[in-house]
Every structure is written in structure tokens, then in C-alpha cells.
Automatic annotation (TrEMBL):
Region entry Disordered, spans: 499-561
Protein name in UniProt: Membrane protein
Compositional bias ranges of the Low complexity kind: 508-517
Record carries keyword Membrane: yes
Keyword Protein biosynthesis in annotation: no
Organism lineage string: Bacteria, Bacillati, Actinomycetota, Actinomycetes, Kitasatosporales
Amino acid sequence: MARRPLPRILSNGGAQLARSRELARTAADSATDVLHPLITITRGLRRLAAAGRRRWAETPKEKRGALLFLLASVILVVALAPYGPLLAAITLMAAAAWQGRDGAAAAPEGPDESQRRRLESLYEALVPYFSTAEDPEPLYAHGGAWDKAFPTYAFDGGSRISHLVVRYPAYFADGETEARARIEHLLAAKSGRGREYHFTWDEEGNQLTVDVLSPLAVDIVAQRFVTAPGEIVLGFTDPTRVRRTLPLTCGEQRRDAPPVVWRTGLRSTEPHLLALGRPGSGTSSLLRSIALQALRHGDVVIVDGGGTGEYACLTGRDGVLAVECGLAGVLASLEWAAHETERRLIAANRAHQAGHPPPDDTRRPLWILLDRPTAFTHLAAADDREDPQSLLQVPLRHGRPVNVTVVVADQLDCLEMLSEPVRHHTRARVVLGPATREQVESVLGAPPHTTPVDEVPPGRGYARLGTDPVHRLQVPATPHPYDDATAEAHRQAVLDLLPPRTTPADGETVPAPAEAEPAPEPVPEPTEAEPVPEPAEAEPVPEPAEAEPVPVLTKPTPADR
Ligand SMILES: Nc1ncnc2c1ncn2[C@@H]1O[C@H](COP(=O)(O)OP(=O)(O)OP(=O)(O)O)[C@@H](O)[C@H]1O
């Protein structure tokens, strides 16, 4: 059979086809070059429109009227101004050209596949909470549009949400703690466990903003904080919650961090503190940190119910009146503290009545620090003796005007065993270590503003001073310096803060310090040949300056007993 010739275009068309393709490509390139500004402006206009739509969706409904009014006013002004429309068109084109340029398109718009799936599942999980059968136009419905409910979102490096704005219907009971807690729990679980979330409820705008908080720094070690007398640094918190910062030294580094400062003394609205936590959460370290700061300007009595010698480093130091760990000593010290509070009150009252300033011996701060006092409650009951907590009533009730401050640390599950005055008068509160939302709320009187996490480093928790907001808290590391497990740098940091050892007044010998502290220079005994000159009667003995009052304890100190 004779073969039919191929059409010309196919037989010798290879070269022709290539030529035509080349021609078409050149024409397209030239057209793109010519139309490039137009394409850029169109792309820019599209982006501007998308941004406008997003902004509109983010604006709460009740604010939209005001926004529309503003827009209409601008348009009217532009329309009435000479050359206004022309100038507006030029400005719009310029903005569109700027927005439409290639560089501006670098960031991909919208979530990727896995991020979209996460947002969809979050939306679906919220449907039962944010919808009712009576809602004719539900914002939340199975298979509905999640992008209307989540106008803003951001992801961390992977596909985990780091910021999310959730719109919800006005009928959702956002004023009820339980309703809020259910949503917060669900969002935290669906957005990834193990992180701390911060929730901001905008009840007016029916919007909830979810933010992932970065962990608080754990490298802050005990040091001399720059604070005024009476101010105690409980720990450090988020920069968003506190405006003040303190300069810190962290190893070789120097930086500023926002502290949680507890103001004590005469004008304090929360004159006494209660810290609770599970065993090992760091309450003893917090007490040690408070003691070291208190000793800069005052005297401390320490009651140690832990029985592990956590405060041994403070024994025999200047300003440490007693470190008690036996029931008899504890009762004696607390009885003395109660009498001392009464003595100060009487002395201050007399001075007020006589029109004098309070005497110096009522001004020096006296701190009563108790670690696990409930341990002694057990012992006292078994021994048929008075509960040491009952002796705290006077310092707790009347201590503030005479600078007597009580700090109690105990375990979370002993809250019920603390006496009524302790629970009633300790309005500065701290919870350390892992704790459920309910536990935190029962101690602080308000729920935490973030989701408590299961695994927290020691010294991590929450603090609330009176009715102030709840703060996240990281206590500076203040370990027991005689503990073998303590790192050398931390041990040295604590030892550096210890006051010098008390010089015995009656020639009593004090055991040599455990750490290599330089021994005091021996004072040469005056020889008979060189008599010490007696102060002349005319020479007045200098009065102690008001800024540095010397404690005059009319009762014997517990150490003397
Ligand atoms: N703020 C902190 N920073 C770093 N480590 C800490 C901090 N607080 C406590 N620790 C460490 O955690 C451990 C337990 O601390 P601490 O003894 O203070 O806890 P606790 O709550 O008093 O426990 P317990 O009641 O069992 O004595 C110690 O090893 C301590 O060094």
C-alpha cells in the first residue's frame, strides 16, 4: 500500500514549530515588559483589598459604624478638596505599586496545609461551646468557615499555634469563670500541651486572644537586689505584667529583669506572706531568699519544721535572733516574738500619746519566718502542748504598725491545717511547683491568668499581692549552701550574702565557720603600760543615727534562753 505523505507542517515542521514557539515567547516577554507596571499595580490593589478585608473582619461589630463613618468623612473631604480625587488616585496607584512589587510578596499568604488542618480542628472543637440551635447565622457550625472565627493567627517554627484571636458569639457566657476555664482548657490542649498560654478576654469585643508565653528565665541566682528598705524581691516575672526592672548579674552577663516586689512594713497593704507548694517545689529556698534580703535592714527569727537543717547557714549570724527546729525552742521563740510585738505596740502608743516619733527600738524590722509550722502542730498535739501557730496571732494581727512581719511556708496539702489567723492575715500569697488550676485559685483567691503546666522547674509558680493581678513567678535560686548537691557558684552566691557572724558579747567562743571565711583580726589586748584612755565626761556619746536604728530588745532574745 502506497504511503500517504505527511502534511508539510509535520514533515518539515520541526524547525518551523520551534521558530513559532520562540516568536510566541518573545511576544509574551515583550507584552509582560510593557504590561509590567499594570500587573504590579493590579497585584498591589488585590493585596490592599485583602488587607482591608482582614482589617474589617478583625474590627469588632460595634466599632464598625465608627470606622465606616471615618471612611465616609475621608472620602467626602477628598472629593471636595481641589484636585482631591486626582491626588487620591495617584496616591492609591503609588501604594498599590509599592504593595504589588515582587519583594513585598516574599511572605506566603495564609496557612500551609498542616496549619490549616490544625485551625480547622480547633474550630470544630469549639463548635459545641460557641453555638446554639436558635442562632440563625451561627459563627460556629460543623464544616463552617474557620477563617471568620479566627481573624488573626501565627505559628511558631513548626505548625504549633503561637498567637490566635478567636471571635465568639455575644451570647457566650464569657463572664463565668467555669465557661472561660472550659474554653481555655480546650484551646491549650488542642494547641499543644507543655506550653503556657496566656488568655485575654475582650468581653466588649467578643474576642479572645491566646498567646504562648516563653518560659521564665531560670538562671537568676540570689544576689543583692537594688531595692528600698522594706522591699522584698519574691522573684521575677513577665515583662508585660510589670513595668519596673532590676539590674541583675547572671554569670558573666548583666541584664534587667521585671521583679515581683513585695512591700512590707508600716504602709504595706499585705503585711504578711504565705507560700505553699508541693515537697521540693522551692518554698524553703524562697524563705532563705527572703531571710537574706530581710537581714539587710532587720532581725529574723526562723522556725524550721522541715528538720533538714535548711537554715543552718544563718545560725549565729548578725541579726539572726534564733533558728529553731525543736518544739520547746519554737514555742519559746514565738512567745518572745508575741511579747516583743506587744512591747513595741505599747512603746509606740506611749510615744504617739506624748507627741513623739515612735522610739527606735520599735522601728527595726522583725521578721518571723516559719517553714512548715504544721509539723509542730502535730508534735504539740501529741505532746499535749500549745500549738505554736496560736502564738502568731498577735504578730499577725498587730505586727504591721511596729514593723513585725510574718512569713509562713508550708505544703499545699497542709492548707487546711494552717490556723485561721494565718490564713486570714497572710494576704501576700505564693504558690510554687506543679499545682492544678483549682489549687492555685484556692491559695491566691483568683485563677492564674495562664494555664498551669505539669512540669515546672523548682522555684516556679505564681504570686499575688492582695487583690493585685496574679503574676507568674520564678524565685531566684537560693540553695542550701551546705548541701553537697549545690553548685559551687550558687553556694558562693548565698555565702556572699550572709551577714558576718555575731561577735560574742561575753567572751564565749563561737565554733569556726564551716566555709572558709576570713577570721576576724584579733583585737590586741590593752597592756597595763598602755591604758586605754577613758572617754572624758565632757565628750558626749554619739546618739545612733535614725537611719540605722540599733535594736534594743527589752526581753531576752530566744538565743539567750
Ligand atoms: N528558685 C530555684 N531555682 C533553682 N533551684 C531551686 C529553686 N528553688 C529550689 N530549688 C532546688 O530545688 C530543690 C528543693 O528546694 P527546696 O528545699 O527549697 O524545696 P521545698 O519546697 O522546701 O522542699 P522540701 O519541703 O522537700 O524541703 C533544691 O535542690 C533546691 O536547690
